[in-house]
Hints:
Shape of chain B: globular
Radius of gyration of chain A: 17 Å
Radius of gyration of chain B: 25 Å
Order of helices and strands of chain A: EHEEEEHE
Strand content of chain B: under 5%
Shape of chain A: elongated
Helix content of chain A: 10-25%
Strand content of chain A: 35-45%
Strand order of the largest sheet of chain A: 2-5-1-6
Largest interface: A-B, 7 and 16 residues
Oligomer: heterodimer
Number of helices of chain B: 16
Distance between the termini of chain A: 9 Å
Number of strands of chain A: 6
Number of strands of chain B: 0
Amino acid sequence: MKLIIATIKPFKLEEVREALTDIGVRGMMVTEIKGFGSQSGHTEIYRGAEYAVNFVPKIKLEIAVSAAMADQVVDAITKSARTGKIGDGKIFVLDIQQAMRVRTGETNDDAL
Amino acid sequence: MNPMLKLGLAATLIVLPQLGLAQEAEDAAELAVPAEVSTDTVFILNSLLFLIGGFLVFFMAAGFCMLEAGLVRSKNVTMQLTKNVGLYSIAAILYYLVGYNLMYPLGDWAIDGYLSALFPATAVLEAVGITAEDADDYAYASTGSDYIFQLVFCAATASIVSGAMAERIKLWPFLIFVILLTGIIYPLQASWSWGGGFLDEMGFSDFAGSTIVHSVGGWAALAGALILGPRIGKYGKDGRVNPIPGSNLALATLGMFILWLGWFGFNGGSQLAMGSIGDVADVSRIFANTNAAASGGAVTALILTQLLYKKPDLTMVLNGALAGLVAITAEPLMPSLGAATLIGAVGGVIVVFTVPMLDKLKIDDVVGAIPVHLFAGIWGTLVVPLTNPDADFVTQITAMAIIGVFVFVVSAVVWLIIKAVMGLRPDEETEINGLDMGEMGMEAYPEFSKT
């Protein structure tokens, strides 16, 4: 089992969700976050004073899938979230030690 | 065609010319009657103008309140609302106790033209159900209507101060300043012009108060902001300006529109009479010019911020509209619509360039009250002689300087005394946590959370 954590541009959320459901992903967690990476913020002007926006709004996705499906998910996110401009985001893949569906008590792959 | 309809049309054709003739005859009869309005009617219409103007200007208290509530951070909104209700109500009480008769000595001066009275009497209304003989001024208007109209102007002056000093001054020191501003500072300097004092003798022309109301609020706010200092975190050590965005631009915009509406009463009511064709026509000129100036200010700020900053800045557009309104307030009657638009437009330019200028000087003005009310007020007063042949530049500048020095110095002294006696600012922790919890113990938006 793998946990895929992806940060994407907020306006790409719907496209990414569609791409993932198309390949059979049946659940994900979505969080509005702020952060910085190589894009490292930008500047805005408010009432004549320039200021740095150090943290850029992003969407964080957390998707738990079977190990066999992980590459496919990463690929789908990469394709659907890419604009080619700076700030498209990053994807991390982690191992999951254990999973449990609360309602039924199913474990591991059955719980995903 | 339906025969009945044909019949109807024919009948109409026959009757119509006759109706027209009758109308012309009536018009001729009316014109033949001298356009004399009875004194009763003049009294009623003048009082009505004051009352309509009065409640429009009263509503500006809501405008200031919403503008400020929207431009401060959510942790200071309850405090800002409390200050606005408090200052208006205190102004009403002080204007009754001292202000009204200090401002209008009716020719009875303690020091002729300069000091109306050492201990002014409280305001007294006419009796209930008066007849023409009992009226204080039968040829003009009821005392109550004049009183309420003048009172709301006094309160507007105090509203200006609260916005500039928001988010970092404690409640009670602020309200104590309001007592002195609305009871003494405002009415005393207003008596010099509108009460028939020495500035009026000199020929100073300030129709509805670009200087007497707006710049007075602005000078008091400037003195206060200088003595109070900026909000924690507003200016960085290396000279950087850190913007502190407001909590609710929808409320701020509503506040601006309420002020715009109220300004029709502010300027229109300042015609001070509606009992003749000439007066009513003038009031309507003033409404149209007031609106034109606000539009000029808003559009100028919109275009300028787009050009200078690549994105239009709504808060500047709000300030621009208000600066246009303040600018036209000194002479809303004489200009043409075009001139009024231009006078307002320059107000918009002033705002866009002086807001960053104040930041460079590290004068923290949360809502832009000083650029809007002081700088645009000076511009509006200065430009009066261009459209009003009875005014001249030397007098305008002299009067502005006298009022400016008086209000700035007296306000500064009052602020310094309050600071020495009870302090102006809350402790650092309270300011950073927000005055709402620290001073008021309640939040304006308890169910909103921010990460």
